[in-house]
Amino acid sequence: MFEPTDPNQIQLTPEGELKHFITTEGLSRELLTEILDTADSFVDMSAKQVKKVPLLRGKTVVNLFFEASTRTLSTFELAAKRLSADVLNLNISTSSTSKGETLKDTLMTLHAMHSDMFVVRHSSSGAAHFIAEHVTPDVAVINAGDGRHAHPTQAMLDMLTIRQAKGEFAPLTVAIVGDILHSRVARSQIHALRTLGVKEIRVIAPNTLLPRHIETLGVKVYTDMLQGIRDVDVVMMLRLQKERMNSALLPSESEFYKLYGLTMDKLALAKPDAVVMHPGPINRGVEIASSVADGDRSLILDQVTNGIAVRMAVMSMAMSGQTKTRANLIQAGES
Amino acid sequence: MNMLIQGGRVIDPANQIDQVTDLYIVDGKVAALGSAPEGVEAGQTIDATGQVVCPGFIDLSAHAREPGPSQKGSIKTEAAAAVAGGVTTMITPPTTSPVVDTSAVAELIRDRCEEAGKMRILPMGALTKGLEGEQLAPMAALASSGCIAFSNSRLPIANSLILMRCLEYAATHDLLVVFQAQDESLARGGCMHDDSTCTRLGLNGIPESAETIEVARCLLLTEQTGVRAHFGQLSCERSVRMIHEARERGLPVTADVAIHNLLLTDECVTGFNNDFHVLPPLRSQLDRAGLIQGVLSGTIQAICSDHQPHERAAKEAPFADTEPGMIGLETLLPLSLLLVEQNILELPQLVEKLTSAPAEIMRLEGGKLSPGSAADITIFDPAMAWELTPESCHSRGKNTPFMNYPLKGRVTHTLFNGELVYQLEGGNA
Questions:
Q1: How many CB pairs under 8 A join A and B?
Q2: What pTM value is reported for the model?
Q3: Catalytic: B306?
Q4: Binary contact (A100, B321; C-beta < 8 A)
Q5: Nearest CA among A98, A161, A133 for reference residue A10
Q6: What is the ipTM of this complex?
Q7: pLDDT, tens digit, for every residue of A258-295?
Q8: By the 8 A CB rule, do B235 and B291 touch?
Q9: CB contact under 8 A, A2 and B268
């Protein structure tokens, strides 16, 4: 009666170009690779004396953050500035607003300021999708994390980091460890890793932190970390919020660390050249040992650097798609 | 005024009638089928050729929102939507504001309905005061004020002893209790069926157990107390099985299902379309198949709209932040007819699910076309193609995924106590 909706209906132009970036789900391998290739070209730029390109000159980017974030907000801000955009950062606490009406009201107000791009972080799954549905067709929306749904730029910076470290995706076995249930990062990583063709994706967590039927996303489920981490090429740790400890989800911090925390001992079960990643900020001694986080197999700081490049890539690509959309609209209006 | 409804296919499941014939109405009551009663001349004739003439629909769950948030709906607006959908009697849950836990509220609803004058609204009373799950509501007094049944809606009665006392008290007075089964702790924070689509979208899920655990508890206490019980708006295959088994054991429990739970599944939510945010949630293909099986086997006797109008702002937010529920009064018939089109039900069986079966559950006189019955009558064209549009929609709420959707089967006339209370523009009269 109602067919399942293709997530790309909202984020691609009819020509298949990116106009919003809401989710990694359903995007083609070619498009994901294009994002990585474009990001690669920006990675080198960070080392140059002049770190700016004029791709977004004259454009206004609004970082619309309904949820606290330092790392993601600052990398988006830096990315936009390196693309020569004018940037407005808005931190809007959802606790002081009354849900949907205010979100839409805020959006309408910002519309009136003729912004060109919204970078959105929100605690509700689907918020970026909702905003993309309600902006005028010439405004691009980049999802900077919505609820448990998606964090596509984080996933793509992880993909870039893996590609830099490992070269090819096809032979890899990747383990994602920790709070899969609440993780938008894990969902976006899984979609991207599958599309890019890794051999195997594993998720490792106790049942209380695993969403129902997660295997339908194409992953193997392990509740025993010692089994799950065996012979993997990449270990992607997830952040575990301390408030979830000592609740009905986990008995204690120490028990979680003992069973699922990444220590040198556990890492020894992975391949000898396995690399370790974490979206940050890390909880040392809860999900990861300092010796691993600061060790020579850790790519955590590379992820941060790559974050700027990936966000520059996505913003420039989406703006390009929107510019064409705008041109088409003008042409249609004239004809 | 006396009336003749001429040449329609009269379907009256209660009397096992399905024939093309004339129907005469005298003094607001059904007078005769076929030939005119002696000495009667019809003052008005409705040409029902090619159409179905049946008892007015009885909807076991439809929210009118009055008293309460008038931006969502009122008795006047929702009664207009009801008759446009062929519904002449609707049962409203007690979740008004204030809730129906005093005679004054029940009487207000009935008074407002009488003022609207188009159809019959029968309120359900609260099972506990304020629907807070703590103290028994004055059920006997509420019943005297017109409450047809008693329910705590989806609000929890966490303490099983209190629930048992409610059922014992209702049984004492032979009152019907309606369960809209939901375990609050398992459903808390959830907004859709907990399955793979929910996992992909990162929404909080409501597992089947949120319903089935509560169905099990309610069935056990129903058996123990001997109360008359009805399960409203089931969503899970397992619930149907449990009720089926209870009925096999001789427990006289009944059940209904919202039409959208019979047609849609959780996969509809893939695009975060807020119109699919409903409670109970749209569930899996397996659950949908189980509900259909329940309708076929008779475990589920009735189909309702579970009409829940909302103002636009209530649905303009990210999925989980929106209010659950869709409107359904005006689409009840065309959506139900899809069950006939899909060869799941014969047309008379469907009419039964919308008329005599709900009447029987609620022990109402209506739902049939016996001589002497109140002439609550729906006439519909089962083949008419149309679309519900925001402009043509009578309900104050416009929240349905079926807005601007191609529908087939439309109510052309609705009669209440023999009075024509709705006529489709351009319909024959």
A1: 104
A2: 0.94
A3: yes
A4: yes
A5: A133
A6: 0.92
A7: 999 999 999 999 999 999 999 988 999 999 999 999 99
A8: yes
A9: yes
